[in-house]
Amino acid sequence: MKTKYLFLICTLCTLALFTVSCSDSDSSAVELSASAFDEVSSEGASLTVDIICNSSWTAESSASWCSISQAEGTGNQTLSLSVGANLNDKPRRATIIVTSHRTQKTVTVTQNAGNGDIDGYAYELPVYFHVLYNNSAQNVPQSRIETILTAVNKLYQNNNMNLTFKIAEIEPVSSASASISCKEFMNSEKGTDHYKLMKDPNSYINVFLYAFEEEDVLGVSHLPLTTQQNYLEGLTLTDYSNIQASQLSNIYCVSINTTYINAGVSQYSPNDPIITLAHELGHYLGLHHPFAEDENGAAANECKDTDYCEDTPSYNKVEYDAWLGGLPAGNYDLEYLSQRSNCQGEEFISDNLMDYAYSLTNKFTEDQYTRVRHVLNYSPLIPGPKIQTKAGTRTSSEETLQIPFRTIQ
Fold it and tell me: Cα angle at 133 between 173 and 220, to 5 degrees?
């Protein structure tokens, strides 16, 4: 009997020592070079934290304005923190959590208050261009991309949109396919080759240039998201105000058809890539077509306001296309082809950049500016600083979110 008790005591002691040993091992599994960054400039900053770890680890940020360079890793690495400008007149705080096994370490980032001039803030939006090409003719030169984006910026600046697109990177990628279905590409799932090319949408607008199988499509974009706390009609609602790239189940981007990448401005060919990119970036920032459209962005055979902007004249594009197709052969000037009748039967000349039929395509309206500004200020997965609001639903960085992104051509 005593021998049995002695054996049991020894066994319990061994288990206790093993438990302490595991606990000690876990507690020493990860260390950080810093635990806090205080009084970070309201203009934003780039910070680094050294992770000392003898195993795998994950990292997540509690706030979209303080993004991290990677969500997971193994061993000793440097984690970069990108702190956006603070548009609010109050200081704010974010927490970075690094986890290895059962051990968590945190870094707090406290940022100084901004001047509160939200409307006056000029956004700079980094654009990451991915050029998918099958042959040298499809590999768009850097100079051509620079020319197109410079002209796009001029269109936005001429309309006082208070934003600038800047090239972050141009990455040529050899493709086995001479053409790719843009419909399939825009639904690329997590783990696919095309999905893996995407850079973090919180930091970049991803623009993919490739030859479409659908030759009649010039470009296509995903529409942004809206949150319950700052709802914007016409966008997909999400409960998550802070979404990391690793959580996306599908690609999120803009696609441009390179079949027309060298087309020039012509009143008889609305295939100009400058207008196409400006148009698709407008979609990416929350704008719809000014003509009546269905929920998929296709022209509807009716006349109603579906772009949520009262100062853009709505019209029936199906009727317009029928009128256009019935014109006798001949030469017509662009202004004649741009004439429309709105839903009240009043004549007007189309000049809106979100109209892809024959149009002067050189204007944004005040209501469109307001929508874009709302998206820049509040929507998740859009680069640039955000206005601080009540936090939405929190998720784990390892959780994949099934978000029904909407595409629009």
Answer: 95
At 278, give phi and psi (nearest 5°).
-60, -40
Extended strands (E) in 283-404: 339-341, 347-349
Q: Where are the beta strands (DSSP E) in 265-357?
A: 339-341, 347-349
The residues near 19 (Cβ < 8 Å, ≥ 6 apart) are: none
Identify whether the C-beta of residue 224 lies closer than 8 Å to the C-beta of residue 286: yes
Give the 3-state secondary structure of residue 237: strand
Measured CA to CA, the distance from residue 332 to residue 245 in angstroms comes to 48
Q: Tens digits of per-residue pLDDT, 328-369?
A: 998 899 999 999 999 999 999 999 999 988 999 999 999 999
Looking at the whole model, is its pTM more than 0.90?
no
Q: Which amino acid is at 59?
A: A
For the chain, counts of helices (H) and of strands (E): 8, 19
- Measured on CA atoms in the order 231, 237, 240, 244, is the torsion positive or negative? negative
DSSP one-letter string for 66-106: EEES-SEEESSEEEEEEEPP--SSS-EEEEEEEEETTEEEE
Count of residues making up the chain = 409
Q: What one-character DSSP code corresponds to residue 259?
A: G
